[in-house]
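JOB MANIFEST
job_type = single_chain_structure
chain_count = 1
residues = 188
[input]
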Amino acid sequence: MHLKNTSSSYGILSLIFHWVSAGMIITLFILGLWMMGLDYYDPWYRKGPDLHRSLGILFGAVLLARIIWRLSSQQPTPITTHKPWEKRLSKAVHVFLYLLMFTMIPTGYLITTAKGQSLEVFGLFEIPALITGIDQLEDYAGEFHEIIAFSLIGLAALHALAAVKHHFIDRDKTLLRMLAKGDSSARE
């Protein structure tokens, strides 16, 4: 396995960024849903959001590194058997996934900092509140955060289903390239 991408495969860093991002998105989504049902007297009523915020900031750092890596790395060429509409749809889905991932972070930040309090990250450092004094900012940010979260999970699920479709129906290397398994018997 190589570190960098080639014209035909993803390198280990791209795969790590992809799967760490996927794992963090799923974890943050599940944690967010769970937090919404916590009772005020639950010991996790404060710990859950603290963990969610800290993981969200960590995800932001991973996402920034991922974007820098993606922009500075060669991307594998599309698989030759993909139809033109599949290639266009794939690009559009990836653009929307990145847009949704990037908009999650500021909305989460605004939920926490809207009333002037800083955002503490794993108890190690704080990110100050930069935008305050706007009526109902916390509520609006919360609504957008929830809409974006469900949109991101829905689009990610479609993305995963498309990979499964390519693997089992089209029998091409789409999924194998993201699993770091260069199966030479699979159609390109």
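[summary]
The chain has a mean pLDDT of 94.
The helical segments are 12-36, 44-72, 84-113, 137-170, 174-178.
exit_status = 0
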